[in-house]
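Request: Could I get any protein with tokenized structure?
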Amino acid sequence: MPKLLFTPKAAEQFRELENFPALAKRFRAVRSALGKMEHSLRHPSLRTHVYDEKGCPHDGKLFEAYAENNTPVAYRIFFCYMPRPDIDTVLIVAITPHP
């Protein structure tokens, strides 16, 4: 079960979702997706895939997970694996709406 760490930017984006009542549905979807990520990054509803080969702050692969699907401006969670393979930790880089 991976541990989730947040960049300051991702933590701010999460707090903004949490504190903006008009986005309560989106916040619940993101929170649910993060919960699934804590149990398994391969959960089918996350539809996890590589987004960018060198987009991670550690020069690794940047992955995208779906918090929502088939909805306008669906939210996505961008993450990467931490550079130490002996630690099961992922870094949440951004939580953003899909254009």
